[in-house]
Structures are given as C-alpha cells and as structure tokens.
C-alpha cells in the first residue's frame, strides 16, 4: 500500500516544556508544513476542475473518473482530475487549463488527465494511450507542479514549452518541439530536445536520436502504425503484454519495500515512545531520527509507485484498445494475430482491476494520513501559539 504520511509518527515527536532552538525549529516546520499541505491539497482532490473545453468539433467523448459511461463533449464543459477524453475520426478538441496552458487533441486519440498522482508529489500528468496531441505549457505550471506526458513507449518531462507528440498503435512515438525544452526518457535512454528538434521511437527501438529541423509526417506514420499492427497483432500485443507483467512485478516489489519500511518505522516509533516514558531523551532522539530517515524513504517510494502506476495505466489503455479492434465487427477482419489479443484480454482486464483496487486503496490511505497529518499539526501550532510565554516561532528563530 502507498503511505502518504503518518500522524502517529509526528505525535510521538511532540516536544514538552522548554524553549530550546530545537523546539522552535520544530514548531516553525509545523507552521510551514501545514501551509504547504493546505495550499497543495487541492492538487489531489479529484473533484477539482483543472480546465474546460474551449473548442470542439466532430465526435468527442468524455468519461469522468471512476465512471464507465462516455458522454458527448460540449463547448465550455469543465474538465476534472481523472477524466478520460476520446476523439474519433475527423474530430478535434482543445482543453484550456486553469493557468491558460492548452492541450489540443487530434482525431483518433485517447488520453487521461492527472491519474495516479502521489499525495506527496506535485505534478500534472497526461496519459496518452494512443493518438496525437499538441501542448502549450506555461512556465508557471512547470515551476509550481511539473508537467509530464506519458505514453506506452516513453515519458516526456516538460519545461515551459510548445510541443507535439504522437503515440501510435504499433508503439511508434514521435515528438517535435516548437519552442522550449522537452526531456524524453525511454527508460533505456534519456535526451533533451530543444526548439525545432524531434525524435522517433518504437517498442523495439528506444535509443533516442535527436534530429534538428525535424518535420515528421504525422498522418503517414499513423497509417503505417495501423498497417503494422494489423499485419502482426501478436507481435505488438506481445510487447505490451510483456511490459504489463514486467511493470506489475516491479510495482509489487516497491509496495513490498514500502510495507517493510513502514513496519520498521513503527518499531522505531515504539522505541522512541518507550525511551520518552523512561526519560531517556538521547534514546528518544536516536529512535526518532531513524524513523524520520525511513519516512523519507517511504515518501520517495510513494512517488515511484505513482510513476510506475502511470506507466502501467498507459499499457493497460493501449492493450484495451487492441481488444476493441480485435472485437470490432469490421476492423477485426483485417487484424492478423487478433487471437492472441483476445486470448489475453480477460487476463489483462483482471490484472487491471486488481491494479486499480491496489492503487485506489493505497491512495485512499495516503489521503487519510494526509488529513490526520494536517489536523495533528494544526493542533500543535494552535497549542504552541496559545502559550503566551512563547512568541511566534519564526520571530524566535530570527533572534537566535
């Protein structure tokens, strides 16, 4: 399970009496942390609006988080965390985010917005299962949160820029930067692209070759991808199937490590409590120091679990699309190797359901811990400020 915080951990760390620098620093950190959580908390609330549809033509559908029904997109329709957006033939939609960044979604595209974001990270994430999008990302959003686009083939980290990316059905991924910088990470290679540069990757060719004055043939690449997929569905379905199992195993190992570390942290917290009860301040500080170190490791693992969760979600989305094509009454007639897709589809859907349950429960626990953490720290700050013998922690720190 993913752990976002531990109120008990901080509860054990309450300082009593005295106005030492250590006490002052502790209270100052509480104030700043409460403010940080209060300001950042909306980033994790799924009901928060992150933008709206500013233009829409053709057949465009929207599916809300946790819902199964697709509804027609409309002009000015709000867009929320976790929404899926799907465009069909000769369709296009533009989403304007609250910070005035924009996302233009081309025909035959499926994306999801801000799914599986860890409570301890600030990030805007677009999952591109397949299709093509153009992004205009303002520097403010990058500085405050960070912005990434994930595809089944690679991950793009953005630094306030305009760029276009396509991820087609055979795993071909094309990126072209109009302005600014984009870092491309294929998990085996990593390069930064600048204005007018681009690259093309695939499932079996993940070495990044940067091309200057890059002018991709988007439509041709899309048609070639469909042709390749339909010529050998077993090959491309096998790529995605293998990645799903590989990432699931890696994700499980990360979760196991979090559980092990959490248990170890609780043992140190218990030791700290026992030391405090017998008046052993040195033992208390030593145990709490170890618990804090472990807590930092857990927080970092939380981010990794969310990251690989998003990687997996891209793979699930693409394989689900393969299933749609393999079942289509007309398209399936041209789909060689569809038998492999259909044989594995139920298994992949079962793994996806288990994955969703694990992530959902993990994120729920993290949010509960975050709520407890905020309530606990607010109470401590109020208690500290209520003591008239002590002044504002920041003022005392400045004097020291």
Q: What kind of sheet is the major sheet?
A: 14 strands, mixed
Summing up helix and strand content along with how strands pair, one would put the structural category as alpha+beta
What sort of overall outline do the alpha carbons produce when their principal axes are compared? globular
CATH topology of the domain at 48-219: Jelly Rolls
Kindly describe this structure.
The protein is α+β, with helices and mostly antiparallel strands. The chain has a domain of 172 residues: Jelly Rolls, CATH 2.60.120.1440. 48% of the residues lie in helices and 22% in strands. The protein contains eight helices and 14 strands. Strands 1, 2, 3, 4, 5, 6, 7, 8, 9, 10, 11, 12, 13 and 14 form a 14-stranded mixed β-sheet that branches. Strand 10 and strand 11 form a beta hairpin. Helix 2 crosses helix 8. The protein is globular. It starts with 6 loop residues before the first helix and ends with a helix.
